[in-house]
Recover the amino acids of this structure.
């Protein structure tokens, strides 16, 4: 039977929703136990949150001052050491965090990593996207060694929280941590809008907006819907919005219940980032735009006319 260790992703004392999505993936592996590892300077609040996720058997905490910031060089030796305590799988979200930490863990354990797990066919057999999501490949990892894998969070719903009360246990790891990497600072945008990668609704704009000033209609509609704001790579490259709003192959992969694409033609790189969305609405003046091929609802016309009318109709 599988015994799975999930590395918790967190920031500012709060658990990232991707951790609960990893738990859903782990359940598909029919594991004997699913444990969550929390590395932090003060892991108490994060561990308490993780313990409420349905399906979690136990939460392990490592409280060290060096864990105050999520540095891959510092986290990886501790994760690798924890994994040696009988775990068959080590998982983390396929986010910037997971993509940074887990390859180092795999290297320390001497195994190859399985990236972007999107479906489970067996304890060591998975499906994952390749070629910018244009094809899905089935991969099988050796059963005789620890499996290290990142989970494509857009492919899984978050496990429910609240009904569970998993025990929280401190974990003592005798691991020497490297000192060649140190935390200097973190700069990030502040917003009252929902997080782009976990939002249920997303309103996104493309190059057709024409300027950063015109992007205000995207923000306005998003606020009316209580949605996050996203953008195509073309809009980001044009300087209309910052790069952290970029959706697609080279940006963020999302799976909201509702995705509204405004002035976005629908290049394959962008479609890769939204293919798991529930309902896709497209607004574009070009009736032949590729976005309409995957949209559930489409409006053909001038976005500067249609978007204000849509916002007005919302009341």
């Amino acid at each position: 039977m599988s015994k799975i260790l999930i590395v918790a992703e967190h920031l500012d004392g709060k658990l990232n929703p991707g951790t609960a999505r990893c738990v859903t993936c782990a359940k598909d592996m029919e594991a004997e136990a699913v444990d969550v590892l929390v590395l932090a300077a003060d892991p108490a609040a994060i561990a308490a949150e993780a313990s409420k996720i349905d399906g979690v058997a136990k939460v392990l905490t490592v409280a060290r001052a060096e864990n105050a910031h999520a540095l891959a060089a510092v986290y990886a030796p501790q994760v690798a050491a924890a994994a040696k305590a009988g775990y068959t799988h080590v998982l983390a979200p396929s986010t910037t965090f997971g993509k940074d930490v887990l390859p180092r863990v795999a290297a320390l354990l001497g195994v190859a990593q399985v990236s972007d797990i999107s479906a489970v066919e067996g304890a060591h057999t998975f499906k994952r996207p390749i070629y910018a999501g244009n094809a899905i490949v089935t991969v099988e990892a050796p059963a005789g060694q620890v499996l290290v894998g990142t989970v494509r969070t857009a492919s899984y719903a978050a496990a429910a929280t609240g009904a569970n009360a998993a025990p929280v246990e401190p974990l003592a790891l005798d691991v020497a941590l490297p000192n060649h990497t140190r935390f200097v600072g973190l700069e990030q945008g502040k917003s009252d809008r929902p997080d782009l990668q976990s939002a249920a609704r997303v309103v996104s704009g493309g190059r057709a907006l024409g300027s950063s000033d015109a992007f205000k209609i995207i923000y306005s509609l998003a606020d009316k819907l209580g949605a996050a704001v996203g953008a195509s790579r073309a809009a980001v490259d044009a300087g209309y919005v910052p790069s952290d709003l970029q959706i697609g192959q080279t940006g963020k992969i999302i799976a909201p219940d509702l995705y509204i694409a405004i002035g976005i033609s629908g290049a394959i790189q962008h479609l890769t980032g939204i293919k798991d969305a529930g309902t896709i609405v497209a607004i574009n003046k070009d009736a032949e735009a590729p976005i309409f091929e995957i949209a559930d609802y489409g409006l053909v016309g001038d976005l500067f006319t249609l978007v204000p009318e849509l916002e007005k109709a919302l009341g």
Q: What stands out?
A: The two ends are 54 Å apart (CA to CA). The chain has two domains: 3-170, 201-313. The longest helix spans residues 96-109.
